[in-house]
Specification:
The protein contains eight helices and 23 strands. The termini are far apart. By secondary structure, it is of the alpha+beta class. The longest helix has 25 residues. The radius of gyration is 26 Å and the shape is elongated. The chain is 24% helix and 27% strand.
Length: 429
């Protein structure tokens, strides 16, 4: 009996000793973060694709700092460049004015990080040791807790919250042990079912979009990228009306499966048989590197050229179309005629719904629950997590040259698109 008691006593002592070592050595390796009295207010934060952005302001008493940045603190500083200006005594700041730029989340290692504002001051007593001051970031948005799933390669889950000892925004990165499958990329084959899209002679838009989408999906999966199609040939018949909204709707699926990118594949049509070429539609206020790479890859490796269309043109082959004031009025008048309640459509709303509705508030999504029985519901219309979304018009079905390319160069088209996506993901990873 004495031996048993002695053994239990030893276990307790060792356990206490282990805890002591943890508290006083291991935990102490992460120094406590000392925050200044002033607090920064975050007026907006969001994740678009796999980039985190934030806007905020602060009134710092001592504005004679040498530099100002955000930093993710976990014992060490991971500095994030910002743009700032002073207005009425307050300092306003943001990471980027481009929605698909900012802090790249998929490179964060497992651990806990505190997001704070960091000001660096000159030290008159020791020029080699500048004075560092940290300011907490109060979450003044309605998005109190945001959950982000990284690309499938790492399969981590990132929780953004402010429920911690510092009452500042916190990033907790853990291994995602959920059995629910998340996808990296969503591909939307344009039209489908009863809606055949554009047609010319014996050719239908849906035939091309489905074939090319499946080839892109296959290429991406071979590269280890998980892909979700919004529909395939086995899902629908020719008499079926495709759902756009509600659960399983093509504009809802990208956010349901937590994908980072959405590509909607279409073929254009014109009243003139002379109009031809590729048009890639994007949101406004983005970094166009990926868009440029896709269109340049297509035009370099297939017979498709840049479209001659100048309306909404941003760059060769790249277009962006937000609602104009007249289009907003027309939309509202249309709702009135149908006895619909008005959606919050503005000039900030992207005109193309597969871009607009998959991007959350960053792209001006507006299909909410105002007309659930008539149109349906997009539960993610006001989300602060959105897919980085693009819509490709791969030539014109009304142009014989483009049709020949669509018939004879599908593999090359699919490869050009998928190569750009693979490059985008691999370079950032």
């Amino acid at each position: 009996m004495k031996k048993i008691l002695g053994f239990l006593f030893a276990v307790v002592i060792l356990g206490c000793g282990g805890y002591f070592v943890y508290v006083n050595y291991i935990k102490s390796k992460v120094p406590k973060l000392n925050l200044e009295e002033e607090v920064s207010n975050a007026s907006k934060y969001y994740v678009y694709g796999n980039h985190f952005n934030i806007e905020g302001n602060i009134d710092i008493k001592d504005k004679n700092y040498d530099s100002l940045c955000l930093t993710l603190y976990n014992g060490e500083d991971k500095d994030i460049e910002i743009t700032s200006d002073t207005d009425g005594g307050k300092i306003n700041y943001y990471i980027s004015n481009l929605i698909n730029d900012g802090l790249y989340l998929d490179n964060l290692d497992i651990g806990t990080y505190y997001l704070v504002l960091k000001a660096t001051y000159s030290n008159s007593e020791d020029s080699e040791k500048p004075i560092i001051k940290y300011y907490g970031i109060k979450n003044d948005t309605k998005y109190k807790k945001t959950v982000y799933y990284t690309l499938s390669k790492d399969n981590n889950i990132i929780t953004i919250d402010s429920n911690n000892e510092y009452n500042t925004l916190e990033f907790v990165v853990k291994k995602n042990n959920s059995k629910n499958k998340n996808y990296d990329v969503t591909i939307d084959p344009g039209h489908g079912g009863m809606d055949g899209g554009g047609a010319s002679g014996n050719y239908k838009e849906t035939d091309f979009t489905m074939d090319i989408s499946k080839k892109v999906k296959s290429n991406l999966e071979k590269a280890g990228i998980t892909v979700k199609l919004t529909h395939d040939e086995g899902d629908i018949d020719k008499n079926h009306v495709m759902d756009e909204y509600n659960k399983g709707g093509r504009a809802v699926i990208p956010n349901e499966v937590k994908s980072k990118y959405t590509f909607s594949i279409h073929i254009n049509k014109s009243g003139s048989s002379k109009v031809k070429g590729i048009e890639l539609y994007t949101p406004s206020d983005i970094n166009y590197d990926l868009a440029k790479d896709i269109v340049n890859n297509i035009t370099s490796n297939t017979s498709l050229g840049y479209s001659s269309n100048r309306l909404y043109k941003k760059f060769d082959g790249i277009y962006t179309h937000n609602f104009t004031e007249s289009e907003v009025k027309s939309a509202i008048d249309g709702y009135d005629e149908k006895n619909y309640k008005h959606y919050n459509v503005t000039t900030k709303s992207n005109y193309l719904y597969m871009i607009r509705e998959t991007g959350g508030f960053m792209t001006g999504a507006y299909v909410d629950n105002s007309n659930p029985d008539k149109v349906g519901v997009n539960p993610y219309y006001d989300s602060n997590i959105g897919n980085e979304s693009y819509l490709l018009e791969l030539g014109y079905i009304s142009n014989s040259t483009d049709v020949n390319t669509l018939n004879e160069e599908q593999d090359a088209l699919a490869k050009a698109i998928s190569d750009s996506i693979i490059k985008e993901i691999n370079e950032k990873m």
